[in-house]
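> run fold DUF2855 domain-containing protein
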Amino acid sequence: MSEFQVSKSNYVNCRIVDSDLANKALEEGQVLVKVDKFALTANNITYAVVAEQIGYWQFFPPHADSANVSEDLSAWGVLPVWGFADVVKSNSADVSVGERLFGYFPPATHLVMHPTKISATSWIDGSEHRAALPVGYNIYRKVASEPGYKKAHEDNRMLLYPLHITSFALYDYFKSNNWFGATQLVMISASSKTSTGLAYGVKNDENAPSQVALTSERNMAMVKSLGVYDSALSYEQIEQIDATQPTLIVDMSGNGHVLNDLHKHLGDNMKFCSNVGVTHWKEMKTGPDFIKARSEFFFAPSQLQKCIKEWGMEGFEQKSGKYLAHSFAKSREWLKMTDVDGLQGMADIYPDVCEGKIAPEAGLIIRMP
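> ok
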C-alpha cells in the first residue's frame, strides 16, 4: 500500500510511504477497499490548517513505511479527500467484494474499514478511532443502489459535492438568520469553488443580498466572467466597497490582513463575518480592527445535521439535491477537469495547491493506478 502524508508543522512538505497494510489479514467485520480516484482542492488544505481543532488528523492515522516500521509518526498526517473506492477483500457477511463507494478516503491506494449500520444505500465506518468524529464524514454511499447513478458523473460529484454541500449549508444558515440584517454580501476569495457554489444559490434567491466579489487580480477576469456577482473588486480595492450598507462577510481565504482592513472599513455595518476556509493559510494573523465578537468559524457538518433533524432525511435530500443540481450545472459551464497520475502526480502538483497557484477553473482529479 502507498500513502500520501504531509508534515503537520509545514503542510507543503509531503512524502509517499509504502506499507504492507494491503497484505494483512482482515479482522472479523473488516473490509479492504482500493481507492480508485479522488479530487484535490484548496479545501483539503483547509483540513490540514484546522486539523488540530476539528480532528481531521484522526480520520486516517498515518502508516509507517515498511522500511522503517519503528519511526515516530506523530509529525506526519494524512489529508482526507473525497472520492470513490471499491471493496477488494471482505471479512464482513454484509459487504460484498466489488461494492463501489463514495465518501471520505485517504490519499492512498488502500484503506481498511469496519462497516456498521449497513443499509441498502450506505454504511458507516465503525473503526474505533473514528467513533467520536462527525458522522457525516463516516458515511459511505453504495453508489450502485442510487437512482440515476452514472459513472460519468463521478468526477463532478467528488470534486463539487464536498464544496457545494458546504455552500448549501452556508446558504441555509444565512437565510435562517435573515442574512444577519445585511443588504450586501462580500465574498472573500470569490473564485473558490465553495464561493461560487454559494454565489449561485444567493443569486437564485430574489430576497438575498447583493454580492460583492473580492479576489486577486489574476483571477479577476474569471470571476467577472461567471456573471453571478453584482460587482468584483481586487483585495487592493476594499475601500471601494459601500460601507453604508449592512454587510455580511463570507471569508474563504483566512487572510487576516484582508479581514482586518475590511472590518475596519465597514465598522458598525459589519454585521457578521463567517470564517469558512483558509486558502491564504500563511496570512491568518488578524489585526487590531478585526471584530471578533461578530465573527464565527463555520463548521458545515453541524449545520447539515441541524437541517436533517428539522427536515428529516427525505426533506434534506430534496432541498439540498435541488440546490446542488443548480450549482453543479452552472459550474460545469466553466470547470476544466484535469487528470493527475497517481500519488506521485499528486506530490508533484501539491505544493502549487498549497500556494494557491492552481487556476480556479481547474478541477484536479487524482486517478490511481
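The chain has two domains: 2-149+335-367, 161-301.
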